[in-house]
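Comment thread on ticket #2218

A.B. wrote:
> Attaching the input chain for the structure job we discussed in standup.
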Amino acid sequence: MEAFIRENLELTADLLHDGGMVMVPLVVLSLFMWLLIIERALFFRRLYRKNMNARTALSLVREGRMPDLGKQKGAVSLLVAEFLGCRTGNSPLDRHLLDASVDRINRRLTRSLALIGVLAAMAPLMGLLGTVTGMITTFDVLAVFGTGNAKAMAGGISESLITTQTGLVVAIPGLYMKGFLDRRAEGISRRVRRVGLYLKRHL
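C.D. wrote:
> Ran it. Output below, let me know if you need it in another format.
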């Protein structure tokens, strides 16, 4: 196992070295994008689990009792907690406050998703930048040595291919995860809006 890890670390170090300067921002971009993806995935997972139904939510709202966020961690519990935190007891005003609570939760659901999409879309462009710099290196070698230095030419071509490949490797799963998280956010948002309408009708 140790040998396997060491071998892969050496391979990664070689790729970073052969890919040139563009590999550094590409790796930073990838790490930042995956941090955001993991944060969103954990957040949505928490909102999906242990959800209460609309009747239980209404019962808690009527009693003015906060949900037990240790046992009920879902999106509906969050909505009830948000609403009870700002409820005034004035029905017309409370309906507006309930709408505002639904909007606040929906904004939290979509936070970072656009940025994840932008980062995933930037990765192949940065890979393309590496392609250009690699080809410039290759032409520089050709200008100085002609076709007589195949090893130096291969360095520029290698840089082009590695950065292009890395850009695509970062972008493809990133875009897939963006679509997955969008669908998750939309599903939770629909549930929150539905329960919000139900509560509003019975306030």
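A.B. wrote:
> Thanks. Noting for the ticket: The first helix runs from residue 2 to 19.
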